[in-house]
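User: We ran a pulldown and think these components assemble together. Before we commit to crystallization trials, I'd like a predicted model of the whole complex to look at. Sequences follow.
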Amino acid sequence: MDIQNYLLILVGTVFVNNIVMAKVLGMCPFFGVSKKLETAVGMGAATSFVLTLGSGTSYLINHYLLGTDLAYLRTLSFIVVIAGIVGFTEMFVRKTSPVLFRVLGIYLPLITTNCAVLGIPLLNVQAQHNFIQSLFFGFGGSVGFSLTLILFAGLRERLDGADMPAIFRGTSIAMITAGIMSLAFMGFSGMVKP
Amino acid sequence: MTVAILAVLVMSGLALALGAALGYAAVRYKVKEDPLVEKIDAILPQTQCGQCGFPGCKPYAKAMAEGKADINRCPPGGEAGIRKLAELLGVEFKPLNAETGQTKPKSVAVIDETLCIGCTLCLQACPVDAILGAAKQMHTVIAKECTGCELCVAPCPVDCISMVPVSETLTTWKWKYPVTPITVAH
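Assistant: Here's a predicted model for the assembly, 380 residues in total across the polymer chains.
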């Protein structure tokens, strides 16, 4: 396990196996909070924080608490743990940094129901990552999520002012844009040799 | 069977631990918010006009709660507003501070659309986004949103904005506050 391995995980999760574009997870916030660049940045930061922390804790729970006997409890326990982390983070941030809370506050509860946050710990288990690898996988995945969210928000802000037929306006053009973006991200899959 | 019991134990242990952590966090990281600010803010008319010398109603409410501002600096709130503030804060009623402006009948801004040149200056001045329009397009005021703060009147280069008092109709009429003269006991 050298540094190259971790870098590979980072590049792989941010670009090649991007959680939104390649794995199609986390669609709800991807469409829901991408109308403005500012909110997209806030959501991205909040998700990154929770996702990195969540994949680390989920690894610990899976490895030390569940093992192979109780593998069927994974989904349930991961959801419980992630919800707990989100709740704790919300209270902690609210007390320690009101400024950060004003930026992230309203997005934090939304993260509990973000399927990418559950998906990454489950993928971690599937890929049999160790603790550090899980952290990198979670961080890389959330950076990839934030990247696509911010790119998409920028595109949607431009699209708002564009002159286009009425039936394409709003969500329909957003769907088409997301599809084309996903195609563009497929170009990365040639970058890393499996 | 033992595995099933183990599963129940693991899940309830997890739930207990997280519940305890969250409960501890709720006590440990409790945020004390001054409820007085909210109460004062609820009395203020939310015109966000800035005539009190503060950037909006909330900052003025905050200053009042901290005792840094007097209660008689809000012309849109009028005498009734000052009376309510005096009652809430437990201080004597005092007439409106003359330097902050005079109480006027509730009015809304109206743009003379034939004169409007579409300069967007009033759009930028409006604190509640009640003016609709774009550059070089005619502007108009959404009467329902207008708070009558008069901030848009001054920036208009062609003086096409006027304040029109809102007349009482059957739908806008409200019971007046009972006015009883306060007799000072000697």
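Residues 105-171 of chain B form a domain with the Alpha-Beta Plaits fold (CATH 3.30.70.20). That may be worth checking against your pulldown data before setting up trials.

User: Thanks, that helps.
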